[in-house]
Amino acid sequence: MPITIFDGIVIGVVLFSAILAMVRGFSREVLSIVSWGGSAAAAYYLFPLLMPYAKRYTDDERIAIVGSAAVVFLIALIIISFITMKIADFIIDSRIGALDRTLGFLFGAARGVLLLVVAVAFWNWLVDTAHRPDWVNNAKSKPFLDSMVVKLESMLPEQIAQMIHTYVNDKIQTPQKQPTTDENGTANDAAPSDDAPATPAPAPAAPQTNN
After folding, report:
1. What pTM did the predictor assign?
2. Which DSSP letter does residue 123 get?
3. How many CA atoms lie within 13 A of 170 on its CB side?
4. 14-18, 23-27, 82-86, 207-211: the lowest-pLDDT one
5. Which of the four pLDDT bands, split at 50, 70 and 90, describes residue 155?
6. Region for 177 from its dihedrals, namely left if φ exceeds 0, alpha if ψ lies in -120 to 50, beta otherwise
């Protein structure tokens, strides 16, 4: 089985993610995730504090909630990112800087594989088997990624996995209007409208007279 374009894409994505994480360092990559998670938690718990101020500018409660949460998220992200960058720079410049970059390379490679697994999962859901190109089906890396997709789906809660499948199926299934045919076999695409004139009723029979 020869190497296909898909294999080249897989190798490129993994290497790019690994080199990027190696340059940044393992500590910076992990602390970056912590920054986003901490900012999201801060927005979730602290947005009610800004709600009274947001309601001065809008009467829509949903807009007030989104605006308050966004402000808290951005402020928390700036503060936490500043702290985590200082910590990451200290680690990289220390004696364990080489180890930090090595771990970053491994972390980046694993992140690249995870991104590819998620992409292949959606590919398998959206593209029918008969319509998949040969350079994807015959790729050497495809069986490995498919097995990882199965493991990833088994790790998800059943309700979440079912929700994802339902959402994807609803997006790709577009109901088409089926034309109706009359007795002569002619297709009638348009359905009868309620505003169309009704067929007149037959006139009543004239009463018979006795001579």
Report:
1. 0.62
2. H
3. 6
4. 207-211
5. confident
6. beta
